[in-house]
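Checklist before submission:
- one chain only
- standard amino acids only
- sequence pasted in full

Submission:
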Amino acid sequence: MVAGFLILGVVIFLLLIFFGYFVGIYNGLIRLKNNLKKAWANIEVLLKQRHDELPKLIEVCKGYMKYEKELLETITKARSVYQNAQNIQDKAQADTMISGALKTLFAVAENYPDLKANQDFMHLQTRISSLENEIADRREFYNESVNNYNIKIQSFPDVIIANMMGFRQEELFKVAEDDKKDVEIKF
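Returned file contents:
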């Protein structure tokens, strides 16, 4: 009789340990998944700030850049693509379009001394350049979060629980091959 209670006690103890281990792994996966969402939300905050600054920059440039209509239209189009993006990949692609167009805009602005001297342009250029640097930092943090999450869901024994609970691998923030090339600037 005592042996039966002892065996039952050991079995219950082992089940509790197993359950606790399962809960610990599951909670760790949830924490990493939520960190991913937070990391992307932080990127979106900065993208929204940049997105809100672009119309101001375009308005300041319009008066000076009469011959650069195509460049300003490209920025406007990229902004619209971002507004209509439905997922992280589409938003990342639109973000890359905007970054490339801004690099070109700031390079072309060198040909317009009056524009370069305009205080509004200088302020917006500084503000957007600062946002670009912050976005780059946040992209790096996002990719670090994705990497940690993906490692966790692929590691044993976490992979068993991750598969049971439907956790799937996430995509890193990638730059398209075309966007890795130097920006061609024509004067």
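Reviewer check: The two ends are 94 Å apart (CA to CA).
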